[in-house]
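Example (one chain per record):
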Amino acid sequence: MTTVSRIHRGVARPTIAVALHGIEPATFERCAVIRDWLEDHGVDRVTLLVIPARDLHPVGERSPEMVEWLCERRRAGDSIAQHGFQHVRPHSSGGARRLLARAHGQRDGEFVGLDDEETRRAVHAGWRLLKLAGIEPDGFVAPAYAYTPALRQALSLRFSWWAGLLRVHRAPPRLDAGVGVGVGERSGGAPPVSSETAPEPTVGSLAPAWSLAGTGPLGRVFSPALVRAGSLLPTSTLRLDVQPADLQLARHMLALEWVLARSSPQRTAVTYRELAGVTALAGRARRELPQSLPAVNIAGSNDLTADSAA
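Predicted structure:
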């Protein structure tokens, strides 16, 4: 019986879903060490969050070794998620969204302040770079979990699931599935599906993500205690966020070790894809739907255009 079957057939055994954030060439060695450490502590499945173009350099060209490692991890059962595009905002945003993001410590809210077109281009450019590198993602996690209506709408065009701070969501079915159409197009030249008429995503059960990446000095001081406390809650799924920087902080690693020592024996490790109830075959079919993509014009991208083959 698969892990997905165990979750959705109501078996009592709870689950643990660990996400390794911020994977890029600069953090690759630390992430590989952390992944091995998690394996040693009973976590055999992890969701790997990959940044497609940190500093506007495509991940596939900067670190073939990392790409090979990610492919190996996927074959071993891990899931790969796109983690924004650059992971940071390309320009300063203003208005209420910026203030709200800062109030919640969302310094890396990459998509906050972007309009619909900017959001769509960034999402699909990142997906394209990962696909060309051979590590096409099946899901998406926004930096700092900072989602906007435009971002949620863009995700429904390509990804089978996306993760928020409190839940993992399964994307709605594509209304144009099986039809060769472009972004925002439908068969017969019909107008694109608007946010008002598009199917709603399936809302997963409550599963807040616990992280040691506290905001500000007080947050960093108390985050290990909060993660320990969160792991004791009687939830069906325990979500843990692990950052590359945690490896350099003894207090963080001790807190994670404490949580895993208590939780791993009683919980089954799952990926976000499994948590969303998406099979590997379904995710692959969704990703392979024909779709025109916006131009990608960044350093080292080989001048990809919407007409070049993905």
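Caption: The radius of gyration is 19 Å.
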